[in-house]
Amino acid sequence: MTIQINNFTTLNNGVQMPWLGLGVGNLNKNDDVANLIKHAIRTGYHSIDTASFYNNEEQVGMAIRESGASRRELFITTKVWNTEQGYNSTLQAFEKSRKKLKLDYLDLYLVHWAVTGKYQETWKALEKLYKDGFVRAIGVCNFQIHHLQKIMENCEVLPMVNQVEFHPLLTQKDLLFFCKNNHIQLEAWSPLMEGNLNFPLLKELGEKHKKSPAQIVLRWDLQHGVVTIPRSSNPYRIEENYNIFDFQLTIEEMDRIDALNINKRFGDNPDDF
């Protein structure tokens, strides 16, 4: 019997966020981002994740307008980059992103990295944007437990999301446990390990469930209670990644995938970046 995972997780402020979204990091004009996003929306995706650093916010906004989807049906995320951080500069960066996207509001605004000496002031700016109604939810990216604790010591609004590198080779169990205990939704970037999916276990489970190794990993994310935003410039892969709601992994299979962990990062370590 398939475990029923609702289309949305509910954040700590009551806002509903899709479990599955499309990441568009490192997708540029040559990848025809707008058409890829429109294809994803037609496929059934409701969540699109971008950032000012990705330099494609205009194309994301164009895709939203041309998709025919109701704005209320979509969940749009962007992020403030490191050089934009600080209280006033973050407010300015948000307005710049909002104008590029041509949206009245954003669903989720994130601090891209924990810039030493700045991220706490940046968080205060996000709290203002949230209180003023320009964004429905606020959160962080690439925050370790100690970064989250620093925010929580003085915050007026608890972070709703922490988007981090998370995959079978980097299970981050302590961070996942901390976020669950503090009602912060963990979200996985680079869930497919930059395409490094050639593991006998993933192939074995894929054959058993009639799914690809990528689908096995994305389902593993969901069953850990982790939102996932796989990136792809391939329309077929975008469709395949969406098709993960009709099967389940057993507890034993989940444990076997967990055991692949070697604390391997494909991106930067938040404590060294």
From TrEMBL:
PROSITE patterns associated with the record: ALDOKETO_REDUCTASE_2, ALDOKETO_REDUCTASE_3
Listed transmembrane segments: none
Keywords: NADP, Oxidoreductase
tRNA-binding among keywords: no
The keyword NADP is assigned to this record: yes
Highest taxon listed in the record's lineage: Bacteria
Location of the NADP-dependent oxidoreductase domain: 22-261
One family name in Pfam for this protein: Aldo_ket_red
Family as reported in the entry's similarity comment: Belongs to the aldo/keto reductase family.
Protein name (record): Aldo/keto reductase
Species, as recorded: Heyndrickxia acidicola
